[in-house]
Design goal:
This protein is an alpha+beta fold. The protein is built from 10 helices and 12 strands. It folds into 3 domains: 164 residues, no CATH class; 83 residues, no CATH class; 153 residues, Histidine kinase-like ATPase, C-terminal domain (Heat Shock Protein 90), CATH 3.30.565. The strands form 3 sheets. Strands 2-1-5-4-3 form a 5-stranded mixed β-sheet. It has a 5-stranded mixed β-sheet with strand order 7-9-10-12-11. Helix 7 runs parallel beside helix 8. It is rod-shaped and about 160 Å long.
């Protein structure tokens, strides 16, 4: 209840209304004190009129008049003459004098607060202007205990009334908030929960109906998000089904092409000149087809597992890779050179680093071999305070514009005829698993350089 929006709103409303009432209470209690003192002055003036009517008053009557007025004596100034009209014994000396004729609001408030905070009974002198201009001033002497008790009684009644008003206002606002805010918000939350449970169920998509502008905007934003997400989920499902079908086709096609490649090895032995001339092209075409099938199957597997980080010697991995690539390259005129320091040790997954560098080296070797000229692929490395760096450079023709625009995009970033672009996509994914990246430093007629960054820290560079 208290942690809910409406519950907290109820508490805050009660607190704020009480605070407002307290701010009203201070000037109210000051005004009550002023009215109380003015009433005493008016009663004293009325009592003094009796003396003006009859100069000789009995002592008992004078005492009764003073008691009814709530004062000890009355002084009236008329025609510049100060005259003691009524008097009685004062029990103690006068503590203070208050002039109400020109007192400011600040003075009245401070005097009232001081009186509330001062317990006990004191004798004070109060000066004011007579009503109906019956003189220049009237002055009375009175005790403060009845004044303070009256002020406390008035203050308690004000605070009780404020509490009732606060609670009543808070309850009304509580009901209004639940009706116009909390209920629509719960409706939006309900749509979210229903959609999260079954995204494919169209009944879980919200129908904007709120009358409040901000809630209406939230509902419309949620509707757009749900619509786009539903479309993306359907598209993802279709792509998953298509990917599964492609993987199955690629698997069977790879087996068929492998068998066909065995037959082409015999065709190369034919005595027919035309057959001997066309056989290598057939073999190359099948090799490219098998490579595409293998790449598709590799990319279509489940997400790559997290790397098993260990301290590894990079030069040993590079030497194994170069030996394998020289065999795979056959008779091409591409030299693969290692410029990796023999004592460079980095923290990474050896198998995944092998695959990253292998994909970059193979792309570079095939690009250089495609030119028909001699060329070199160089693997180098260095480190700084933040990361280890592995670079693969070649002397090839550079990447075409289409390959640069679709770098690291599967099936679109191929740089050579028949290439799929899967090598770069796989290398980038494996590097991201290490918290690093694969980036293109430069490309052109003089060659291409790719950099692999492996952070030493938490993966941020």
């Amino acid at each position: 209840m208290l942690n809910s929006l409406s519950g907290r709103f109820l508490i805050l409303t009660t607190v704020f209304v009480m605070l407002a009432e307290v701010l009203i209470f201070v000037p109210s209690i000051a005004r009550f004190r002023e009215d109380y003192l003015l009433a005493r002055l008016e009663r004293a003036q009325i009592a003094s009129l009796v003396l003006l009517a009859d100069d000789m008053l009995e002592t008992e009557l004078e005492a009764e008049l003073l008691e009814n007025a709530g004062v000890f004596n009355v002084v009236l100034r008329r025609d510049e003459m100060r005259q003691l009209m009524l008097s009685s014994p004062i029990p103690s000396p006068i503590e203070n004098t208050f002039d109400l004729r020109e007192a400011s609001a600040f003075v009245l408030i401070s005097d009232a607060m001081r009186r509330l905070m001062t317990p006990g009974n004191q004798i004070i002198r109060v000066i004011g202007a007579p009503v109906r201009e019956a003189g220049l001033l009237i002055e009375v002497t009175m005790e403060t205990a009845p004044l303070r008790m009256a002020m406390i009684d008035y203050g308690v009644r004000i605070l009780l009334l404020s509490a009732v008003i606060s609670v009543f206002t808070a309850v009304l606002l509580f009901a209004a908030v639940r009706r116009f805010l909390v209920k629509p918000i719960k409706g939006v939350v309900g749509y979210m929960q229903r959609y999260a449970t079954a995204p494919e169920d169209a009944r879980g998509i919200i129908k904007p109906s709120a009358g409040v502008t901000e809630l209406r905007e939230a509902e419309e934003a949620l509707l757009q998000l749900q619509t786009e997400l539903t479309h993306a989920l359907k598209q993802k499902e279709r792509l998953a089904q298509l990917g599964e079908a492609v993987a199955k086709v690629s698997h069977d096609l790879r087996n068929i092409l492998t068998s066909a490649q065995l037959f082409t090895d015999r065709i190369e032995m034919s005595e027919d000149p035309l057959v001997r001339r066309l056989a290598p092209k057939l073999v190359n075409s099948m090799t490219r087809a098998i490579s595409l099938c293998e790449g598709t199957l590799a990319f279509g597997r489940a997400e790559e597992p997290a790397p098993t980080l260990t301290m590894m010697n990079l030069s040993e991995v590079v030497e194994d890779l170069i030996a394998a690539e020289l065999i795979a390259g056959g008779n091409d005129k591409v030299e693969i050179v290692s410029a990796v320091s023999a004592d460079l040790v980095l923290r990474a997954d050896p198998e995944q680093i092998y695959r990253i560098v292998m994909n970059l080296v193979r792309n570079a070797r095939q690009a250089v071999a495609g030119t028909g000229r001699d060329g070199t692929v160089t693997i180098s490395s260095h480190e700084d305070t933040e990361a280890w760096w592995i670079s693969v450079s070649d002397t090839g023709p550079g990447l075409p514009k289409r390959a640069q625009d679709n770098l690291f995009t599967p099936f679109q970033g191929g740089a050579r005829k028949g290439g799929s672009g899967l090598g770069l996509a796989i290398a980038a994914e494996l590097a991201r698993g290490h918290g690093g990246s694969v980036s293109l430093r430069q490309t052109g007629a003089e060659g291409t350089i790719f950099d692999v960054c492996l952070p030493k820290g938490d993966g941020t560079i």
